[in-house]
Design a protein that fits this description.
Elements lengths: L3 H10 L8 E5 L11 E7 L17 E7 L2 E7 L10 H4 L1 H9 L3 E10 L9 E9 L30 H14 L4 E9 L8 H9 L4 E3 L3 H9 L3 E11 L14 H32 L37 H19 L1
Parallel strand pairs: 1-4, 1-5, 5-9, 6-7, 7-8
Antiparallel strand pairs: 2-3, 3-4, 5-8, 6-9
């Protein structure tokens, strides 16, 4: 996977004359966003070398080139998740391909559970921050060899989201009369595939979370790392069940997620069309990012979590790529023993 994004981008450049400036990542059931594009050219994932196939209902498995509100765009209809068995570098692969194709901005959408009690099913939160517990525990798309041509070894995440882009969304929502668009959302990334327990939901809410889901952050991290502007929209598809909720509070399921998407899908499409109209000139006026050498081989292990020299960390460590889990377990056991002695 070290240079697969270069290989994939080179493959696609040879087969399309569209040079996208905008990338769009469609969340569960939101693939209809690409239906608003014109002059489309569609590639099935199975025909793209190095692309895995999505296994989740609501993810089409197509990469669509075309024009969205007059802007050359590439749209990902179906993303990859770590709970499908993919490393986070693979989850972020399409965003890196977008960067290699010349995109300057990426719109990332998701279907999420609502943690914030003021949110309702059908609300759309403009995400301006995130909490990613897996990323704090070695599960991260930037782990491994760093491709310096894409971005720095230690990128900040405090500036991953752009308030100017949020303002564009809010202005578009106001023109359309959409009172269900919320500002300043914080998205919590969990690995899944199970939905959260009541205690886990309470913890995420207490940590400042507004929505919770099983995607998005690997793509945001990779996009920001390689210089792309990021706009993230989170559709609330269910209310997360909290401690103290009655028995009549239904447990989360994927069917209700898709039902909520179907209910709000047309509204989201109109919102995206409207905000992209406002972004057309700013995107075209943005400075081009430095071109990526698509013929370059950066070496094995890039972004895959391999090659670290510390014992037990990464596939190059003495204990193998999951050795860090053993070290964590040892630490917990020793900590518990010391606590008992006290």
């Amino acid at each position: 996977m070290s240079d697969s994004y270069r290989i994939i981008a080179s493959f696609l450049k040879d087969k399309t004359d569209i040079n996208p400036l905008l990338g769009v990542v469609c969340g569960s059931g939101l693939s209809g966003l690409s239906e608003t594009m014109t002059d489309v050219q569609t590639f099935l994932y199975k025909d793209i070398p190095g692309f895995p196939l999505p296994s989740v209902a609501g993810h089409k498995g197509e990469l669509v080139f075309g024009y969205l509100s007059g802007i050359a765009t590439v749209c990902l209809r179906g993303r990859f998740h770590s709970y499908e068995g993919h490393p986070q570098a693979m989850c972020a692969l399409p965003v890196r391909v977008m960067r290699c194709l010349g995109c300057k901005l990426v719109i990332i959408t998701n279907a999420a559970g609502g943690l914030n009690p003021s949110y309702s099913v059908g609300d759309v939160a403009v995400i301006m921050d995130h909490l990613a517990l897996p990323n704090l525990c070695h599960q991260n798309p930037l782990v491994g060899h760093n491709d310096e041509e894409l971005g720095p070894r230690f990128p900040p995440m405090s500036n991953a989201y752009d308030e100017n882009l949020q303002n564009v969304v809010l202005a578009a929502a106001e023109r359309l009369g959409y009172d269900w668009v919320r500002k300043n959302g914080t998205y919590c990334f969990v690995s899944g595939p199970m939905y959260e327990s009541r205690a886990e939901s309470r913890f995420l809410l207490s940590a400042g979370g507004d929505t919770v889901g099983m995607s998005t952050v690997p793509e945001v991290v990779a996009a920001h790392h390689c210089g792309l502007k990021v706009l993230c929209l989170s559709l609330v598809t269910n209310k997360v069940v909290m401690p103290g909720a009655g028995a009549d509070e239904g447990a989360a399921n994927h069917e209700e997620v898709l039902d909520a998407v179907n209910m709000r899908g047309e509204g989201i499409k109109r919102l995206v069309i409207e905000l992209v109209k406002d972004l057309k000139t700013p995107i075209e006026d943005m400075d081009d990012l430095p071109p990526i050498d698509l013929s370059k081989n950066i070496g094995s292990g890039s972004g895959s979590g391999s090659g670290s020299g510390w014992i037990g960390i990464g596939s190059g460590g003495i204990l193998g790529k999951k050795g860090w889990m053993l070290w964590l377990g040892v630490g917990l056991v020793l900590g518990a023993g010391l606590a008992r002695r006290r």
